[in-house]
């Protein structure tokens, strides 16, 4: 994996500067002769241009930078602590980041890593143990990660978003539909 080139950071820098300026400057602070609505329109256009400059390749590079860092320094623990570059079982010890990355690996078409990760999860992750876990994190990252990876890899027409409001209903609804078992819905 090659390090990111300098030009990759320019769109993010522009976006960061726009967000920072919007947060720090008073709403009335606009250039002379520019109405607040024109300033908002210009700000939004700058943000849109910054987002458009981030290519699929850049997004893929950023994902693999994070994923490879996790696999090298933290796997099979839940998460990578970025400052110490060490792993931590913060949410139950289920290789949470690996499970949470399954859907992205499937979307990127990385069959080799996806298959390897699914095989590892199938052989090593157990849910029939007595542990204290965060219900929210378990639902959005483990249940949601496994379900969305299954739906994407199975080429289902319905792809679900696993974060946000109503997440329990969403994940348990999909689980019920896939298993033909209405428990939890």
Automatic annotation (TrEMBL):
What GO annotations for molecular function exist for this entry? Answer: calcium ion binding; mannosyl-oligosaccharide 1,2-alpha-mannosidase activity
Q: Which UniProt keywords apply?
A: Endoplasmic reticulum, Glycoprotein, Glycosidase, Hydrolase, Signal
**Localization, UniProt:** Endoplasmic reticulum
- Enumerate the Pfam families for this protein: Glyco_hydro_47
GO CC terms = endoplasmic reticulum quality control compartment; membrane
Report the enzyme's class at the first EC level.
hydrolase
Gene Ontology biological process terms, A to Z: carbohydrate metabolic process; endoplasmic reticulum mannose trimming
Q: What is stated as this protein's family in its record? A: Belongs to the glycosyl hydrolase 47 family.
Q: Could you identify this protein by its name? A: alpha-1,2-Mannosidase
* Native source species: Eleusine coracana subsp. coracana
Encoding gene (name) = ga09481
């Amino acid at each position: 994996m090659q390090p990111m080139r300098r030009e990759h950071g320019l769109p993010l820098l522009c976006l960061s500067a726009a967000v920072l300026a919007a947060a720090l400057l008073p709403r009335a602070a606009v250039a002379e002769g520019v109405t607040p609505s024109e300033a908002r329109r210009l700000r939004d256009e700058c943000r849109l241009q910054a987002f458009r400059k981030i290519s699929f390749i850049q997004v893929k590079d950023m994902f693999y930078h994070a994923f490879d860092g996790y696999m090298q320094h933290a796997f099979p623990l839940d998460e990578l602590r970025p400052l110490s570059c060490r792993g931590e079982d913060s949410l139950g010890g289920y290789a949470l980041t690996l499970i949470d990355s399954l859907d992205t690996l499937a979307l990127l078409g990385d069959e080799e890593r996806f298959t390897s990760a699914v095989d590892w999860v199938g052989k090593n992750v157990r849910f029939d143990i007595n542990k204290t876990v965060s219900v929210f994190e378990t639902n959005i990252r483990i249940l949601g990660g496994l379900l969305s990876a299954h739906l994407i890899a199975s080429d289902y027409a319905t792809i679900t978003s696993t974060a946000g409001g109503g997440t329990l209903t969403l994940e348990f609804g999909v689980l019920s539909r896939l298993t033909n078992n209405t428990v939890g819905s």
